[in-house]
Sequence to fold (412 residues):
Amino acid sequence: MHITFSAYYTLIMAVLVLLLGKLLVSRVRFLRNFNIPEPVAGGLVVAAVISLIHATLGWSFGFESSLQSAFMLVFFSSIGLSANFAKLKQGGSGLVIFLGVIAAFILLQNAVGIGLATALGLDPLIGLIAGSITLIGGHGTAGAWGSVLEQQHGLVGATTLGMACATFGLVIGGVMGGPLAKRLITRHRLAKPRSEADQLSSSPDAVTEQSDVSNFESSSKTPRLITADAAIETLALFAGCLAFAEFMTGVTKGTAIQLPTFVWALGGGVVIRNMLDYIFGFKVFDRAIDVFGNTALSIYLAIALLSLKLWELSDLAGSLMVILAAQTLVMALYATFITFRIMGKNYDASVLAAGHCGFGMGATPTAVANMQAITNQYGPSHKAFLIVPLVGAFFIDIINAFLIQAFIAWIR
Fold:
């Protein structure tokens, strides 16, 4: 028996998944320690229940996909709308160098994934999924490209595979970053641990300021409120991004520059944001964009995880673990011998290496958690806390999107 949920009931189910995830994250320390997103925590539990129902009763469920696509486009638009190129100047040459280091790592990560998948007799696209699509990209990019690979390239279970890889990477990225950086600091004698008194006397506000990985505006005495006018203004920006994406998708269809719609949404956000900044002098409300984008991502992930068919992973489990284990080793070696050395072989470089492990295998919040674990023990690294959020929040997503498209074109 197949049960189909309309858009309204799909949205209700997605909200219930988010509420379940919030409950789990608040109650389970493991989920909090490794920054597992609430929609992932709740969605995987529901996906497991759905798989159990399928195995025992033979029932299957369908959810409204158009709603999922809409929220996906809003999320990627928010990344583009956050990409203010003036922030490149704020990061200085270190930001540009770090971007180059990460771009080179994306090429290596995908080469490892595709090479091992081919050697194991799998579709090379599976190696790409177990590469930068999920490990650099995270759950949002995994779901977006999973849909593209399923619909345009016939790769069954791509979204399910992507969610599994992204979850693995999120956990591993949180486990390996801190110990790796601590080993670098100790081996090269870069810093000494602060005394317990120093750590206890550290201002929580200072840590919060450093760890602000979102693009929220800095706090002030009179912060701008997200009012109805601000919400309408922000919705207009998103509508512009989605209109641009739809137009460009139609214009470029069947041409050499054909890209997935969500990539055009991201690119539209970049164009609109910087035109407003530099041509019209309009101040974009970053905090409202973040709120809308993060909400869209949560609902999108909840719907995507509801649609998972975990039984489709059974034949790939062994081969997939081989690829992911290799990716973990490559990440550790690259952060140690490339990221650390190119970024200066100093204390800041060791903290950047920890951050790279975080979003190179997982997500930006994981990267910041890794860096906090180090700076809480050894002292602040203002350079790392400036560069990593800027790179992880949006710049790397732009680079990753175009490199993934290039790899797919090369494979096919």
Summary: The radius of gyration is 21 Å. The first strand starts at residue 2 and ends at 4. Residues 200-221 have pLDDT under 50 and may be disordered.
